[in-house]
Amino acid sequence: MTPTTSLQHFAVNKEGQLVSVGEVERGLACECYCLACQSPSLARQGHIRTWHFAHAQETDCEYAAETALHKAAKECISRGMKLWVPAISVTEIAYSGDRDR
Ligand SMILES: [Zn+2]
User: Fold this and answer.
1) In whole angstroms, what is the distance from residue 63 CA to residue 45 CA?
2) Distance 27 CA to ligand 1 centre (A)
3) Measured in angstroms, how far is the CA atom of residue 72 from the centroid of ligand 1?
4) Would you say residue 90 lies in a domain?
């Protein structure tokens, strides 16, 4: 499977709480960890790129962003918060006749 290129917007702090990159201190001062591999993460809060977490050291952790987003969504649902998702479009296709011809 191809590694994700999405940015990691959530991590876990030293108290084990899910936190977003906008609510922690910059860099290693955030004392956060990757939700997928539990390795130390730093908060990148620069002026050019979107704020995100990054692993403090090189790693082969492929699913950090996906895992973080998944856990953040579960946290929102468990807190009874609303979660807005894109509209879903469903199309029904009816076949007539024998499909095996
Ligand atoms: Zn990781």
Assistant:
1) 21
2) 16
3) 15
4) no
Does a structural domain hold residue 3?
Answer: no
User: Tell me, what amino acid is at 23?
Assistant: E
Q: Tokens 């959530």 belong to which residue?
A: 10
pLDDT in tens, 5-58: 588 999 999 999 999 999 999 999 999 999 999 999 999 999 999 999 999 999
Cα–Cα distances in angstroms (integers) from residue 8 to residues 27, 37, 47, 88, in the given order: 14, 13, 17, 25
- Provide the residues around ligand 1 (an ion) whose CB is within 5 A: 34, 36-37, 61, 64
Query: Does residue 94 sit within a domain?
Result: no
Asked if 60 and 28 touch (Cβ cutoff 8 Å), the reply is: no
Task: Identify the domain containing residue 38 by its residue range.
Answer: 10-78
> How far, in Å, CA of 8 to CA of 20, rounded?
9
